[in-house]
Amino acid sequence: PRLLSQFFFADERVTRVVAEINGLDAELDPQQYLVLLNQLHVSQAHLLAVLERIMEECIPTQRHSRDYLVKFPEELLVDNLGNHMLFAAECLLAGTFLDMEESDGAQLRPQARNLLCSLELVRTVLREQSLSQPNSYPEPVRTVLIQFDRLFAEFEL
């Protein structure tokens, strides 16, 4: 029931699926590749949902404002906007520009890099915290969560 324990297992699932994708030759088994991509999407969505709950518990008053979300279509907000943003950041970093001018993509690439680096730092810090003291959120944990929340909000905007 502890959020850090839930995070640990969600993070393990994402790591396991990524390792399976990296070890698979997509040309030899395209069907399995698609299955794994779907598993990655689902496991990342779960990881982000747990991370959101951790931030609500740990830094509720220090969260970055999300007032701009009223401008997004409702169907996008219901369908896990965070997971779409993570996918967009990964695509930008890989050099893929989705439905945007190349100059816009080049401008967003540093933000995407910062966001993904911050997510990796959060994952590392929370994994370590879940193994050492799963009932507390010391200042270093709070600091990386605040930074990640800010970068994520800036990327969404």
In total, the number of strands is 0
Main beta-sheet annotation:
none
| Low-confidence sequence ranges | none
Q: Report how far apart the termini are.
A: 33 Å
GO cellular component, one term: early endosome membrane
Protein name: LST2 protein
InterPro entries: LST-2
Organism: Horornis vulcanius
Describe this structure in words.
Helix content is 75%, strand content 0%. It is mainly α and 157 residues long. It has one domain (3-156). Helix 1 (3-22) crosses helix 5 (102-132) and helix 5 runs antiparallel to helix 6. It starts with a helix and ends with a helix. The mean pLDDT is 87.
Write the layout of secondary structure elements.
Layout: H1 3-22, H2 30-58, H3 74-78, H4 81-94, H5 102-132, H6 139-156
Protein name: LST2 protein
InterPro entries: LST-2 (IPR051118)
Organism: Horornis vulcanius
